[in-house]
UniProtKB/TrEMBL annotation:
<keyword id="KW-1015">Disulfide bond</keyword>
<dbReference type="GO" id="GO:0005604">
    <property type="term" value="C:basement membrane"/>
</dbReference>
<dbReference type="Pfam" id="PF00086">
    <property type="entry name" value="Thyroglobulin_1"/>
</dbReference>
<dbReference type="InterPro" id="IPR036857">
    <property type="entry name" value="Thyroglobulin_1_sf"/>
</dbReference>
<keyword id="KW-0677">Repeat</keyword>
<dbReference type="InterPro" id="IPR000716">
    <property type="entry name" value="Thyroglobulin_1"/>
</dbReference>
<dbReference type="InterPro" id="IPR051950">
    <property type="entry name" value="Dev_reg/Prot_inhib"/>
</dbReference>
<feature type="domain" description="Thyroglobulin type-1">
    <location>
        <begin position="86"/>
        <end position="139"/>
    </location>
</feature>
<protein>
    <recommendedName>
        <fullName>Thyroglobulin type-1 domain-containing protein</fullName>
    </recommendedName>
</protein>
<keyword id="KW-0964">Secreted</keyword>
<dbReference type="GO" id="GO:0005615">
    <property type="term" value="C:extracellular space"/>
</dbReference>
<feature type="disulfide bond">
    <location>
        <begin position="153"/>
        <end position="172"/>
    </location>
</feature>
<dbReference type="GO" id="GO:0007160">
    <property type="term" value="P:cell-matrix adhesion"/>
</dbReference>
<feature type="domain" description="Thyroglobulin type-1">
    <location>
        <begin position="150"/>
        <end position="215"/>
    </location>
</feature>
Length: 299
């Protein structure tokens, strides 16, 4: 006979007092005012309000105790002791800032790393793009210019490539935002730099009509959407995928490294070495390393 149930969750930071308050219009149920209802036909489960004790780093914990003794955000209960949860950005809140210096910015709602991480002071400091788990990805800007920096494009490309897509052709600005004109998976559109969503009152078009878009600029984009580096890398990936579909996985050519803006990456493979390169692909001095150490190079 329940006609409506509205649940409200109340959280008190000091002791994690969790209360579900149910407002019930029912002639059949007479319940105390502080009762949380979980219903599943034909059963109804009632859970009364209770205090959950939250403890800090190194303290004893017990998730199954009554009432539970749980760890603060950024910690996890391991062998009944609160330890740092390195999978959550919030673990950095338990570090000594005087010892570790400037700590990263976290998203308090889900414990992930904020997309934009800034270091230094507002005038000379810089902001960089990071993934949800704290990996440095493409994109940076001076802190004083970073108010509209979202890193949305860098995060999108990073997540797509992590998921196994090797043919992503989204183009990011230096600061990790979207370029205004985007093409991917055979379609092109004018994009909001902050989100990548299509600009209002415009339409997406097939790739061969990309120069008809209102955001197309001849002097900036030229006659080809893909740039020198990502054009070669994209062709390489298409060849690899074609061989893979026919059962051949061992391809002899080396990967071409490109930035998310289509320029050449920080290193390239030359004669069994990983060598540092400029954005135009030219070699940067004599800096080089073994190929098996390439992923550790930042040039």
């Amino acid at each position: 006979n329940c006609h409506a149930i509205v649940a409200q969750l109340s959280i008190d930071r000091e002791n994690f007092l969790l209360c579900g308050i149910a407002f019930i219009q029912s002639s059949a149920l007479q319940l105390p005012p502080m009762t949380l209802i979980f219903w599943s036909i034909p059963l109804i489960f009632l859970v009364t309000c209770g205090a959950v004790n939250a403890v800090g780093l190194g303290d004893d914990c017990h998730n199954n105790a009554v009432p539970p003794v749980i760890c603060d955000p950024g910690l996890l209960c391991e062998d009944f002791v609160c330890v740092l949860d390195k999978k959550s950005c919030l673990f950095t809140h338990h570090l000594d800032q005087e010892l570790f210096g400037q700590l990263p910015t976290c998203n308090p709602d889900d414990g992930t790393f904020a997309a934009k991480q800034c270091k230094g002071d507002f005038i000379t400091g810089r902001c960089f793009c990071y993934s949800e788990v704290g990996e440095r990805i493409f994109g940076w800007d001076w802190w004083r210019n970073a108010e509209e920096m979202t890193c949305a494009c860098s995060r999108k490309r990073h997540s797509l490539e992590k998921a196994g897509r090797h043919d992503v052709t989204l183009h990011c600005q230096q600061n990790g935002n979207y370029e205004e004109l985007q093409c991917d998976e055979g379609a092109c559109w004018c994009a909001d730099p902050a989100t990548g969503f299509i600009i209002e009152d415009t339409i997406a078009v097939p790739h061969h009509l990309w120069t008809l878009l209102p955001c197309y600029n001849t002097s900036f984009y030229g006659t080809q959407y893909l740039r020198q580096c990502d054009s070669a890398a994209h062709a390489q990936n298409l060849i690899r995928d074609a061989f893979s579909k026919r059962g051949t996985s061992q391809i002899s050519f080396t990967n071409i490294q490109c930035h998310y803006d289509g320029t050449y990456g920080t290193f390239a493979f030359v004669e069994n070495q990983a060598v540092c390169t400029w954005r135009d692909g030219s070699r940067l001095g004599g800096f080089a390393s073994q190929t098996n150490q390439a992923n550790q190079m930042d040039c």
